[in-house]
Amino acid sequence: MRLSRAHRAKIEFWSKALRSGMRRYARQLADLSPFHDHTPSPADFASAWAIECDRAGDDIVACWLGHCTVLLRLGRLNILTDPVFSRRIGVKIGKRTVGLNRIGDPPLQTKHLPPIDIILISHPHFDHLDKPTLQRLRSPSTIVVTAKASRRLIPKGFADVLELGWHQNAILESLKIETIKPRHWGARTAWDRHRGYNSYVLTDGPQRVLFAGDTALTEAYSALKGIDLAIFGIGSYEPWEHAHATPEQVWSMFTKFDGKRLLPVHHSTFELGEEPPGEPMQRLHAAASSHHRRILDAHIGKIVRVSAL
After folding, report:
1. Exposed, middle or buried by CB within 10 Å (0-12, 13-18, 19+), for 57?
2. Are 116 and 137 in contact (CB under 8 A)?
3. Position with higher pLDDT, 121 vs 3
4. What would the DSSP string read from start to end of 208-246?
5. What stretches of 81-210 show up as alpha helix (H) in DSSP?
6. In whole angstroms, how far apart are CA 199 and each of 66, 68, 215, 221?
7. Alpha-carbon distance 226 to 209, whole Å?
8. Which CATH code of 3.40.50.300, 3.60.15.10, 1.20.140.10, 3.40.30.10 fits the domain covering 31-306?
């Protein structure tokens, strides 16, 4: 029986993806050390953050903390996206976590963070919704905003948990949160494909931020206007380009809505793709060419300010 070109391409893709997964997970599972929280980060982060926020005025304050975890200051609110501070992500079996190791230590412990007003969860994948981290972040003054059908994955102990589907919005104090449908999926396992996945647009006065979460190339953001800071994942595209945009595709999406500054995330933290750790940033800067200054120079743990004027 002769297979069509489309069938051959599909078989070739899944064979490549399976080989990629088997290589990476075999390496990672060789070390099943118990989960523990150890970082060398300075204990004065919260005070440094407060000082920078006081100086910022109408500027946005941001700090990339690895993978898709970004601490944002919009208006008077501290917002934390997809918090993951675990050294290993995956399925917890007893006291052990079976999954992928972090490349290096987290930049700080959760106890070093300032008080968090809002936690945004883009989707339930283990590298975005990390239960051990959320358990350590529980606070009666923190609200969690998450995707459809994922409320039950959030540990109890927060002030509230809001589920938002696509094209819905919520207003929390002075902050408006709107959702966009990215090109991705939300299943945590093979049996929960009903779970949602979101991108978020955050607006507080003159400040406007896009947190894309995970997405492949899409036109979903093209009509956006006035985005001061766009947070896009730029890694894990090899061989997962159908779910994770390449750096060149991210730059194309960003320039279509003419965002002011781009904060690249989802790279150099977990080995989720086959590309070398340094490649995503190199390709992004090459794509930006002479406009590379629009890319934030924000290494992990660095506090930066973005003008919203």
Report:
1. exposed
2. yes
3. 121
4. EEEE--S--S-STTTT----SEEEEE----TTTTTTS--
5. 131-137
6. 18, 12, 8, 9
7. 9
8. 3.60.15.10
In one-letter notation, the amino acid at residue 14 is W
State the pLDDT at residue 75. Answer: 95
Confidence band for 207, pLDDT divided at 50, 70 and 90: very high
Question: What pLDDT digit, counting tens, does each position of 69-111 carry?
Answer: 999 999 999 999 999 999 999 998 888 899 999 998 999 999 9
Q: Are 94 and 24 in contact (CB under 8 A)?
A: no
Supply the pLDDT for residue 277. 87
CA atoms within 13 A on the CB side of 56: 25
Which residue is listed with tokens 């997962």?
A: 240
Domain boundaries, the chain: 1-28, 31-306
How far, in Å, CA of 39 to CA of 61, rounded?
A: 23
- Torsion over CA: 262, 263, 268, 272 (sign): negative
